[in-house]
Amino acid sequence: MQRLFERVESIPLNPYISLRRYLYSVQQAYVHAKQYQREGNLEREALLLLRIATLVQKTISKHPDYVKVQNANIVKEFRLYAQLAIKRLEEIKPLIDAKENTSETLTIANAVQEESSQAVLQNNVHLENDLLSSAPAMKTRTMQVHEEMLFVFESIAQKNTKNNKETCGVLAGVLQNHLLVVTSLIVPKQTGMSDSCEMLNEEELFALQDKKNLMTLGWIHTHPQHPCFLSSVDVHTHASFQWILPEAIAIVIAPTDRQRIGIFSLTHPGGLEYTLQCQQRGHHPHPEHVPKGFIGEGKLFYENCNHVELVRDHSIRYEVYDLR
Ligand SMILES: [Zn+2]
Ligand SMILES: [Zn+2]
């Protein structure tokens, strides 16, 4: 199994992302992998476990803060997650071997089975795309969000909005009857500016989600005076969510725009892959379309989601946690 990881590429390190933020991503990826395990969705589970192991072993271990003494405890946690992921992948291997695979298309099962096939693993971006677009287990699931929750968030954010400061929140929830249901709006501690918003204290956020068994399904933020779109900073934030959950959504509330509410996700393959390899930070120009030579070239960077259902009746309930 170790040899497999050595050949799988990971996403490049972004040293401006803190170790804490990376840990939150790894924790969330693991929560989602566990959920796939409960569903018996081996393909998605294996894909996420593979990503956790490669992210820790190939990317995060190169982080400049990784070797600092004060981070010893975080490093221990990263190593634990990588070990858990590898251990589970080793358990899955015989299960995948036993599962009859009638699909013509390459699946993660083949990837795990064919450890010796260099060609298969050399470009795991292509591999993942094949997986996500064709295997039935990878079908996009519908996400339900209560419309009222968006208005509740807007009123929570109102004070900041008046002061031209952005507010952000995490959309968390559960899987119910093959639907992803947003059941919680969590407003973490944060610092907001006129054109960006940064979550703080991911530890507290994860502790709450862990206690309540809530998976991260996306995020929401306001644009007090800007139009309804995803800035380059937003696109990078969203990539870290969508890398874990393909259905993850980004909701923008822009009171001054005629569109007012936008529900977006990055194109995949396309905007997601471009963003994951982009090493720039802060606001920087991103082309409107994926440039030539990149996977998914010519596609829009992000688009309006068509897998989200806004619920207006009382068929779903939601809670609000304001941690500020
Ligand atoms: Zn924004
Ligand atoms: Zn970028």
TrEMBL record:
Its EC number is 3.1.2.15. It holds the Pfam family USP8_dimer. Transmembrane segments: none annotated. GO terms for molecular function: K63-linked deubiquitinase activity; metal ion binding; metal-dependent deubiquitinase activity. It comes from the Eukaryota. PROSITE patterns: MPN. Its cofactor is Zn(2+). GO terms for cellular component: endosome; membrane. Residues 143-272 form the MPN domain. Keywords: Hydrolase, Metal-binding, Metalloprotease, Protease, Ubl conjugation pathway, Zinc. GO terms for biological process: protein K63-linked deubiquitination; proteolysis. It is an enzyme of class 3 (hydrolase). Belongs to the peptidase M67C family. This is STAM-binding protein isoform 1. It comes from Galdieria sulphuraria.
